[in-house]
Amino acid sequence: MRRLSRLLTPRSIAVIGGGAWGASVIEQCRKIGYQGKLFAVYPKRAEVAGVATVACVADLPEPPDAVFVGVNRTATVEVVRQLSQIGAGGAVCFASGFSEAEAETGDGAGLQVALLQAAGDMPILGPNCYGFLNYLDGAALWPDQHGGKRVARGVAILTQSSNIAINLTMQRRGLPLAYVVTLGNQAQTDLAEVARELLTDPRVTALGLHIEGIGDLRGLEGLAAEADAVGKPIVALKVGASEQAQAATVSHTASLAGSAVGSAALLKRLGIGQVQSLTGLVEALKVLHVAGPLDHAGIASMSCSGGEASLMADLGAAAGVTFPPLSEGQQQGLRVALGPSVALANPLDYHTYIWGDEAAMQRCFSAMMTSDLALGAVVLDLPRGDTCDAAAWDPVLRAVAATLRDTGRPMAVLASLPEGLPEDLSEHLIAEGVIPLCGMSAALEGIRAAASVGKPFGVPLLLPEGGEGKVLSEAEAKAALGAFGLRVPRFARASGADEAAKRAAEVGFPVVLKAEGLTHKSDHGGVALNLCSTEAVSEAAGRMAAGAGAQSFLIEEMLQDKLAELLIGVTLDPAHGYVLTLAAGGVLTEVLQDAQHLLLPTDRASVLGALSGLKMHRLLTGYRGAPPANMDAICNAVLAVEAYVMAHRPAELDINPLICGAQDAVAADALIKTGGRDD
Length: 679
Known about the structure:
Layout: H1 5-8, E1 12-16, H2 20-32, E2 37-41, E3 47-48, E4 51-54, E5 66-69, H3 73-86, E6 91-93, H4 102-105, H5 108-119, E7 124-125, E8 132-134, E9 139-141, E10 154-159, H6 162-169, E11 177-182, H7 191-199, E12 204-211, H8 217-230, E13 234-238, H9 259-269, E14 273-275, H10 278-291, E15 299-303, H11 306-319, H12 328-338, E16 348-349, H13 358-368, E17 375-379, H14 394-407, E18 411-415, H15 423-431, E19 435-438, H16 440-452, H17 474-482, E20 491-494, H18 497-507, E21 511-515, E22 527-531, H19 534-547, E23 553-557, E24 564-573, E25 577-584, H20 589-592, E26 595-599, H21 604-612, H22 617-620, H23 631-648, E27 652-660, E28 665-667, E29 670-673
Parallel strand pairs: 1-2, 1-5, 2-4, 5-6, 6-7, 10-11, 10-12, 12-13, 13-14, 15-16, 15-17, 17-18, 18-19
Antiparallel strand pairs: 3-4, 8-9, 8-11, 20-23, 21-22, 21-23, 24-25, 24-27, 25-26, 27-28, 27-29
Helix pairs in contact: 3-5, 7-8, 10-16, 11-16, 12-13, 13-14, 18-19
């Protein structure tokens, strides 16, 4: 792996180009307090922003550690070649018009290849990116304004979008930024490689990722493993749902699985917390910076308003945050602190009886935090500083800090509106070890994300091997899966109504008759159930031949042991690998949309966890007096599917339904679209 330390923590910076962008880089270096050497390369002027220029790269007094290349795209390639030849530490390639503009320019992709060849072993960021801000050491290879300031420790944020990076530096929520790095096209150095370098800085507490696309899944796996090894959590905002994963699909699974669920499954597998908004990203990073990953999403909410308590309850449920009921010990402590007039609950409205009484509030908060809670959040909005006096709110803040010291449990001050916590107060709270959270919805999203950070799965993802695919017949699919241990019904094939009736007698009544060559057979009258005679089979086959044009048939035993129907599906998501979908099955699959997703390979424990997350899980455990389904058999069916996928790398696979009974789990229908190593 390329070493990026010279580039990201430079002792010398060179700016190539004399336009406004280059001058701005020098100005931002001065603004941030950069103490290293500054060089400028521009043949048409004697100085740029007060720095004396040299005419060309060869005239630089020494190989610079970091270079901002602010010239046009064609000149960028040659400048990068010269920098590589003199041994520069790395470069930011600001120009656009490379692979991201191929459709407009027609030569962008080729120019990007030339840029990579010119760079050789020298690290480059971009092209088409702003560069980076190092707020720890005071280095700004950055051609625009930014809102951050120097810190001693903080979080690192990486994004492909320069504009989003600018916006994040302008946050006023108290989040200490150690690094902000933009990546642009990621032509050479991608998100995972930069992030792994930042992990080595002991002053970095957590990583925040804004991800538009993932080019190197193995690199991301390596990043997750290294972050776990050094105890630095990662939270990510993944955007850009792709239609690729749903193109040319033929199964029920395709309606449930795609890029969005693939990315969610990937982040979960890697132990990376996921958020859905930039504000959620900022709030999650504050939690991780101050308290680290949360053990779970069960928190205590405390406010002096019933309205705030209700909002916390409603928004928390939507965000996936829970409020565990009060234990007997909590109730006893709260009753002592609050007296007999306050209704005790979580979220707690402690009323205003104790407002201004710091000792009483501390007793209240500490009593609430005696249980096994991941976090205590005191809801508090400070008044406007320009028109109001906030002195009356100080006892609450001191009580929160004292509760943190007394209980050792993570504590937060949560403002219902972002402007309810001034930036200077947020910074003060962080210095005391209290988490300042701004805006209820974003705060609860951040809490949930911090609770979802975990350990990476540890087994490498199964990746595709390419190839054009074909759709196997149901009989072929069942035979292929049966060879890997999947239970399938007894079956026979027939080419006409008379042969179908004869084969049905051999299979044994009652039987199911299916028209071959149809997808979604039940939608086209291609399935007849519970046929108990040769006459019934012959008649059903005649109807299918006339109505659906069926020429061949599949005859199967009618499965009697049925408590529930599941779907097991696998789709190849080009961005994330093989997505395993477990869902409510049968004809209502798309209607119910009750699904859980994993990435392959997986294990039995993960399969059981996914099954327990389904709404229809109650049917599997014995609903309204019915016996439970055989969970071992269901897991065996899922793992048999996994074994087939591991061996053959299909493009798509669908079992719907898997008939789940008290004794067994049997695939009533199966579809496979090949596309892997067998083609």
